[in-house]
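Re: the 172-residue chain
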Amino acid sequence: MTENPSALGRHHLGGDRSIGFAVLSVSDTHTPDDDPSGHLARDLLAQAGHKVLHYDMVANSVADVRDRLDPILREIPVEAAVTVGGTGVSSRDLTVTALEAMGGRRLEGFGDLYRTLSYQEVGPLAMLSRASLFLVRDKPVFALPGSERAVRTALEKLVLPAVQHLIEELER
């Protein structure tokens, strides 16, 4: 018998541990003062009891994402990262490409589940998302689309329920 993941207890999902996060918004059009999706990510993580240790914004380029994210992931208190934006299909959507270039190992299930949830909200356009989960420097990096709806869906339904367990598995 398969249990519904939302019915699993907190213990199974990793307990009440506070995780140190970095949030990196990737955009050519927003600024740190005008970044509703990045601010939402920070707020949702903090409301769930996690620590947002870094927040920054970079241009949508492989070098900018890599050059800002790599030193952050080297810091011991940072246990996970969320990127917001740059996961579409246009030539300027380079977050996924940057994470691949950093040697990130993709965990396929996250993107599949995100697109399934997104399909319920936006229909077939969900297939245009490259939302992904990578392990970079043995830390989870969740690459989320840039819309507020997408950030809320991914964090509330996927990231927050599973991140503690994921980190515990990586520490084994």
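Helices lie at 36-47, 62-74, 95-101, 108-122, 148-171.
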